[in-house]
């Protein structure tokens, strides 16, 4: 898997060069309508992404457009947008005529730091997020930081949630920058963002190269996700952005670590302060779900084996542990204690 190419302008030219080197029979560009103006590209199909539309029906609609446009097995799909667009576009590429090549062009910080790389593509089911998907690696990822200039405030925070995750896992320099850089520089398409996104992406690439299909070490990248996905589904559509849910999930994972004597409580407090600094929530929005509901949502996690959870627990900066065989009922109370 190639490292993403990070740019500060010149996206269209870089993309055309990459496409020309591949000599595809045709190119089909699928883009997020809100992101498109920031890219200087034109698209063959657009959509307005939302988590409720990350569905098989949406993939079918896109693939029918691809057929009508004459896309064949030697064609190339380019997905331009945030994680929703690269997840669904990548899944359409993975399954169209049993798989055609694709390029990801992330336009959110979350996409650049995480979602657009690593080859995981997916759609949701009503029962939960990303339950259907495929590993299908993009042949290239082009991330132009300038496309972030139109990104809404809340999406910056959400992206910083995934960046924080990389910092906790071991992306060099990230935690220090998040804790000390001027707050305004963390929401601008400048040098600080360029470095944070690139450091997170490089860290992810390193792990994915070692374990492309998540048999072992790659599971660490799910830090905050077991709790986060459960809280995101419990909150309901549009209540929590993905990175916000991951931030809450990280707090719950840290609390587990502290309760088991694995992590220092002052460090957990420090991470909570960083989340607040990044404009991320530290409490669940709205009415807190019942323990029974949360327990059943926790068990839908894809890492669950025979009704037991596999948790990623932070110990100190750059060190997280995988703990297998945890009973959901043992940890469900922690969610209420930590983020209610
Ligand atoms: N495949 C993976 O490894 C992976 C990893 C993490 C997250 N994800 C997935 O990614 C999704 C979240 O991605 P996201 O946070 O990027 O959300 P998103 O794709 O919904 O984008 C967030 C919002 O920003 C808008 N937007 C995007 N780029 C813009 C731009 N440049 N200017 C203005 N508006 C813009 C979008 O229209 C949307 O409203 C979730 O579905 C999550 O499951 C996947």
Low-confidence stretches: none
Count of helical segments? 12
Taking the sheet with the most strands, its summary is:
6 strands, parallel
CATH class of the largest domain: Mainly Alpha
Q: Can you identify the CATH superfamily of the largest domain? A: Dehydroquinate synthase-like - alpha domain
Can you tell me about this structure?
- The structure is a single chain.
- The protein is an alpha/beta fold and 340 residues long.
- It has 12 helices and 10 strands.
- The strands form 3 sheets. A 6-stranded parallel beta sheet has the order 1-8-5-4-2-3, with helices on both faces. A two-stranded antiparallel ribbon has the order 6-7. A two-stranded antiparallel sheet has the order 9-10.
- The model has no long low-confidence stretch (mean pLDDT 95).
- The site of nicotinamide-adenine-dinucleotide (NAD) has 31 residues, from helix 3, helix 4, strand 7 and helix 5.
Quick overview of this protein structure:
The chain has 2 domains: 5-150, Rossmann fold; 154-339, Dehydroquinate synthase-like - alpha domain (Dehydroquinate synthase-like, alpha domain, Up-down Bundle). Helix content is 44%, strand content 18%. The chain has 12 helices and 10 strands.
Write the layout of secondary structure elements.
Blueprint (H helix, E strand, L loop, with lengths): L4 E3 L3 H12 L4 E6 L12 E3 L8 H13 L7 E6 L1 H13 L6 E5 L2 H7 L4 E6 L2 E8 L4 E5 L8 H17 L4 H7 L10 H20 L14 H11 L6 H18 L5 H13 L13 H8 L9 E9 L2 E9 H12 L1
Parallel strand pairs: 1-8, 2-3, 2-4, 4-5, 5-8
Antiparallel strand pairs: 6-7, 9-10
Bound molecules: nicotinamide-adenine-dinucleotide.
The site of nicotinamide-adenine-dinucleotide has 31 residues, from helix 3, helix 4, strand 7 and helix 5.
